[in-house]
User: Which sequence fits this backbone?
């Protein structure tokens, strides 16, 4: 990845955080921009740019058959733990899609499980 791509990703991440900050504060765009020292035109420029990128990314995901639901609800099968503890114990979680199966013990860090699930969704 070149310098331009890294710079573009940094700017996108910065503006995504900026938009989230405005939402979290509940301020109107005009008030927020005044407080942050940003023009409304710049704010709306980056908002439009991020929305386009997000829309393009979503369109790519929707065109790829992944076996995962992209929006709305999806069926989750909850089954009784098997009687054999060597397979899955009662203190474990098992998440299975058409593509893969993830099993984690109760001591597995939640943050690490989130990272694994995000990677699965990217497939």
Assistant:
């Amino acid at each position: 990845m070149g310098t331009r791509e890294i710079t573009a990703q940094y700017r996108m991440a910065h503006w995504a955080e900026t938009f989230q900050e405005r939402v979290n504060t509940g301020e109107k765009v005009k008030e927020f921009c005044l407080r942050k020292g940003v023009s409304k035109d710049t704010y709306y420029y980056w908002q439009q740019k991020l929305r386009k990128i997000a829309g393009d990314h979503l369109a790519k995901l929707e065109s790829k058959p992944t076996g995962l639901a992209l929006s709305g609800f999806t069926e989750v099968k909850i089954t009784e733990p098997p009687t054999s503890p060597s397979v899955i114990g009662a203190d474990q979680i098992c998440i299975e899609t058409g593509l893969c199966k993830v099993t984690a013990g109760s001591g597995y860090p939640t943050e690490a499980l989130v990272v694994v699930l995000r990677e699965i969704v990217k497939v």
Remarks:
- The chain has two domains: 3-63, 67-123.
- The chain has four helices and two strands.
- Residues 64 and 123 are 9 Å apart (CA to CA).
